[in-house]
Write a structure and sequence with these properties.
heterodimer; A: 121 residues; mainly alpha; Cytochrome Bc1 Complex, Chain D, domain 2; 5 helices; B: 666 residues; alpha/beta; Rossmann fold; five-stranded parallel beta sheet; 18 strands; 13% strand; globular
Chain lengths: 121, 666
Amino acid sequence: MKNNSRISKFNAAVLLALMACLSSHAMAQARAPSADQGKQAFVKNGCWGCHGFVGQGGIAGPKLAPEPKPIEYIQAFVRHTRGTMPPYSEKILSNQELVDIHAYLKSIPVGPDYKSIPLLN
Amino acid sequence: MTEPKQQGHSPESRSTDVPLARRGFLGGVLASGAAAASAAATLASSSAHAAEPAKPSALPPSAKGAQAETGIPPDLGHGQGMPGSDFMVDVIKSLDIKYLPSNCASSFRALHESLIDYGGNTKPEFLTCMHEESAVAMGHGYFKASGKPLLTLCHGTVGLQHASMAIYNAWCDRVPVIVVGGNDLDAAYRPPGVPTFHAAQDINAMVRDYTKWDDTPVSLQHFSQSFVRAYKIAMTPPYGPVAISLDAALQMAPVHLHEGKMPYIPKYIPTSPPQGDSGAVKEAAKMLVQANNPVIVVDRAARTPEGVGLLVQLAELLQAKVIDQGSRMNFPKTHYLSAPATAIANADVIIGMELSDFWATVNAYTDNNSNDGHGTNASRIKPQTKLISINSVDLLTKSNYQDFQRFQVVDVQMAADAQTTLPSLIEAVRSAMPADKKDLIAKRGELQRKAYEEDKVRTRTAAALGWNESPISTARLVMETFAAVKNEDWALVASEGNVSNWPTRLWPMEKHHHWLGRSGGYGVGYGAPASVGAALANRDLGRFSVSIQSDGDLMFAPGVLWTAAKHKIPLLSVMHNNRGYHQEVMHVQRLANFRNRKVNLDGDMGPVGTSIENPDIQYHELAKSMGWWAKGPIKDPAQLASALKEAVAVVKSGHPALLNVWTQPR
């Protein structure tokens, strides 16, 4: 467990550094992020497979929406993850597609609170 | 059986010199067919020669052939007295087996006839199946709902080959099913044609690696002993499927006296299950009471409702969290000591009972392409955590099919049945419990009550995500279904295709029959037939059966839908139709990413070879065509409740009903 803890700390540091680098890179897009294009890219690139069509998550992948994490975090994670999710290189998923996907995730409205759903109470 | 009065008969002499015996009937038909085909070919050829006179389209039989068909045959001996297969029925009836799901086959025609005519088609009642895999899986589901095994009959070669995946599932899931395969063993008398291709020296060989026991009886007395022995072995924990090869000639032959008497039928007396060694039980109890944070992990620990009660006793005595891995309904989900899999992280003692994979319980595996594609492993527990195991499967491990998983070092390991060992373990824990620990233990329980409530909120918050979306979220599918059946004595008989485990996370499962677990061997195609088998048991027990049915699973052998309608088996089948083999959707995507390649979709949602769309299968129409009430495709979550209400009414009237629901992937 100590080793795991060290690895986690190292990964977190690497992730922060990558976020800083990618933050400027993320700005260099050909056009403004598009939620509509992002929705298509989300399906075309298999994100729906683990996270669901609206990023709700499930047993195979965590929730992405509503209220997604910042684009810098998502870019760093998607490009460099070594966990259960496979990494997506730029060859597979372009930076434009990534920011579009982020725009799509941001556009997903917050759903009902579970307390307001009779079947969940 | 025809006695071998004449030695050295050639096939030619049998077909021309002697009348057609019963066993030669099929061969005769085949020979006649071949002759007719040959004649037709000759006719076609000769029609090109206009000069030749026209010949009749059906040639008359030769004088010799007519004599053979119509003449009075000499007596070759056809057996006197009770047919052997009638005696076999008496043996089968002695074990009170209620049903016999089977696809009919000539290699057991004699037993088939005896069962339905001599035996009156009751106990067992023959249920017409359209695939041997369905028949075995029905027995699998039936046992888990009722605690009673079923018998199935199949062709010893082609039928057993069809049945084999379902037998493997039963093996991995520790479920008894009695499989009898018909076989024309004696090559000297084996009828030509189909029976020859359906015969083998040792049919059981192909399933021997994943059956608990098998035999090939060569006399009726041998059969009665083998059948009762097979039943007894299958029903002794660890349970498992058994196979008997049944010679066709033995079924046909009359009963012969055995040592001057009629063959006898041994009385079945259940064998006591193996209990844990008393010293090991005491040592385990000592470790558990001294632990600051003991955790109980169970998979197939509760074989019966009594097992659930015993686990509750042990957990409450220790105020220990219980992680139910869900191959059975082991521990009530409504109990505050019920905990998620992550609860082992802070354990100092873990007791695992009837776990199918102890290694994976305490270790995490990440499929991340590291280590030359092997992935990475990490411990999920503290380094000094002590491990205890009670597992009857330690008594029954085979070499070839390696369902025993990776090697896990365990501090106290009992090769014993967990449920049988629980009373002595509970008593040992009571005896070992120091008085000064009681406050600490009570405090542990209070902390767990709080954690349980927090986990409930987290689970429900997650379930609400995507609640109103289309395709319908799996949480919504599962909870709308629960709302429709909650006032019945419900049983979730299967949940295939992975709906993010919402049923076991959200349904208030308390009774042993509320959840029957999964396939065991992960062989796809289990869900539909096992649900029908369980629903058959529940029909007789007055319970309401509901199944979450995935698309890919249904299409392996959808003929079981007809069997359910034919035999009026009430079942609510709610489809989780995500239009793909979804596990593989993710696997292929993952591999493409690892290799830095854009995955080939070719117009589908998932990678080539993983989608079940274009065209979409109309499962509701498929079900209707086989006699089910069905509706779909339902894509709008707002339409689900009313459709479920209709379907529940149909099921309560005694018929099966299916809803084809378009769902999110997981």
